[in-house]
Amino acid sequence: MLLSVLDQSVAVSGRTEDESIRQTLALARHCEGLGYHRFWVSEHHSHPSIVGSAPEVLMAAIAASTSRIRIGSAGVMLPHYAALKVAEQFRVLEALAPGRIDLGVGRAPGSDMRTARLLRNDPRQSADNFPVQVRELQAWVSGTPLPEGHPGHGVTANPAGPTTPDLWMLGSSDYGAQLAAHYGLPYAFAWFITDGQGAAQALEVYRRLYRPSSLYPEPHPLLCVWALAADTEAEAWHHFASRQRWKLDRNRGVLGALPSPAESALRPHTAAEQMEAAALRETAVVGTGEQVATKLRALADTHEVDEVAIITWTHDPAAQRRSYELLALAFDMATSTTCTSKF
Questions:
Q1: Is the peptide bond before 48 cis (omega within 30 degrees of 0)?
Q2: What CATH number should be reported for the domain holding residue 139?
Q3: How many CA atoms are closer than 13 Å to the CA of 193, on its beta-carbon side?
Q4: 44-102 per-position pLDDT tens digit
Q5: In total, how many domains does the chain have?
Q6: What per-residue confidence (pLDDT) applies to 227?
Q7: What is the pLDDT of residue 113?
Q8: CB of 7 within 8 A of CB of 224?
Q9: Is 179 among the domain residues?
Q10: How far apart are CA 91 and CA 165, in angstroms?
């Protein structure tokens, strides 16, 4: 089973937001050394908790400071942009890091709707056009001509080269699964958003409806899972307190920087929050490296996937790095891994 990474450049209390971006860059180098297969970054806008707003820029920095690990977006929120411009950006990234670029796209705004409207130059832009945009992006990224009569016929996305970015569909529902299947694309299900709800159905739809494409003759599903490992189970739950407090606040419409475990302890749970916290801990993938690895293997076996991308939030960046180290050890990942295939 392959292990990959998704990092969201999370804002944490007591640290400036620009430092979160630099921590993502440092984590990418760290995870490459541990043997992780790919490193993805996300896109959010005007978000007080997640400050990664320009994945294509951050990917360029990661490409310049790594040599093996695949680098990707999870993802570009395509309805905000012109498909041609996105294709050009990722063609440039592919030129900088040949054979290592993943272009993950999603339909969600990655923001509130007021911010989403400000991101779009044309108020007529809508998520309803997403399937058409994906088709155009697929053509421009792969170098496949658009049909005669299409406004983009004869237009190319440069620079061209011997390799092209791999286009991924991201989603947390049947919609993304169906679209990925229709266009013959690999599909990443955001387990960490739904806590697994809908995963089995989405993956079943994806496999059943999959139409082989020239680049991807077989379906390739991936799960993005939130997980946290530490040297002891008690230490893992200690660090999880930050994420737990954040989720309880989020459920009440309060968003902010990730609090420290100590800050979280200063805010006792209400009776309702105690019930919510118990439910969160019941499904959380938290523990020692071996305990978390066992849970991840079980998820992968149940859903018949051969790759899981791990997302980990901690207030202390050292705890985050240690979590990825422990999972690399538990999965016996080789530090000399080379990037030999697009998957």
A1: no
A2: 3.20.20.30
A3: 16
A4: 999 999 999 999 999 999 999 999 999 999 989 999 999 999 999 999 999 999 999 99
A5: 1
A6: 98
A7: 82
A8: no
A9: yes
A10: 7
Is 249 inside any structural domain?
Answer: no
Is residue 143 in a domain?
A: yes
CB atoms within 10 A of CB 295: 16
Quote the pLDDT of residue 334.
Answer: 66
Domain presence at residue 339: no
Write out residues in the chain with pLDDT < 50, as ranges: 335-340
In terms of residue numbers, what domain contains 318?
2-231+287-330
Question: Residue 45 — φ and ψ, nearest 5°?
Answer: -135, 140
pLDDT for the residue numbered 118: 86
Three-state secondary structure of the chain:
CEEEEEECCECECCCCHHHHHHHHHHHHHHHHHHCCCEEEECCCCCCCCECCCCHHHHHHHHHHHCCCCEEEEEEEEHHHCCHHHHHHHHHHHHHHCCCCEEEEEECCCCCCHHHHHHHCCCCCCCHHHHHHHHHHHHHHHHCCCCCCCCCCCCCCCCCCCCCCCEEEEEECCHHHHHHHHHHCCCEEECHHHHCCCCHHHHHHHHHHHCCCCCCCCCCCEEEEEEEEEECCHHHHHHHHHHHHHHHHHHCCCCCCCECCHHHHHCCCCCHHHHHHHHHHHHHCEEEEHHHHHHHHHHHHHHHCCCEEEEECCCCCHHHHHHHHHHHHHHCCCCCCCCCCCCC
Please name the amino acid found at residue 262. A
pLDDT value for 339: 45
